[in-house]
Amino acid sequence: QVQLVESGGGLVQAGGSLRLSCAASGRIFLSDYAIGWFRQAPGKEREFVAAINRNGDRTYYGDSVKGRFTVSRDNAKDTAYLQMNSLNAEDTAVYYCGASGYYTDISNISYWGRGTQVTVSS
């Protein structure tokens, strides 16, 4: 069964940084897909965070993370990343990566990860 695996979450103080990674476990190559990052806080709906196209030369971000988060990928390592800086308590959530065949419709996800918890202490 194909699944994505996120890593790099944890507890960080406000103002700190974390880098999340997303890799594939199964019979796919991440380099064949656009990658989206999403998050879900307790009691809230899943929120779009960032997206990157297959080549890694196009990105876009949710308004709440613009200027603080950076999405990237290393297709040689078949891994995608989410660098998160200037974290605040509102960034506390479970973060998910997803693989999509549609960069311009990134919510159309073919494969999801199980998520990694990010907790920001104030």
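the 2nd protein, sequnce then structure:
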Amino acid sequence: VQLQASGGGLVQAGGSLRLSCAASGRIFSRYGMGWFRQVPGKEREFVTAINWNSSRTQYADSVKGRFTISRDNAKNTVYLQMNSLKPEDTAVYYCAAARDQLAYVDYTRYDYWGQGTQVTVSS
């Protein structure tokens, strides 16, 4: 599986962005998908995850109520809608896929990673 993240950019605090992660392969619908973020010098941080059929999602406390994960299995794509962005949301955002369909918080449970897209929120 190859993952291609896009949609990052520069936005003012309070603004919105939607990230997309397009996956290759015919079995995208079987994967659990997650979004993580990382800033230089810090560990990769869990943001949100969704299971294979969208029946379960998980969110980091820092993004609850502001970010929404969704997926379209027909388009092999997972989305991250980010609203009310804050400067502390600035990071490189990565999408990841887990073969066993679940929505994991632990980044070590993911098998495939995209290249990352930069999100910068100015104050």
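The chain has a mean pLDDT of 96. The two ends are 37 Å apart (CA to CA).
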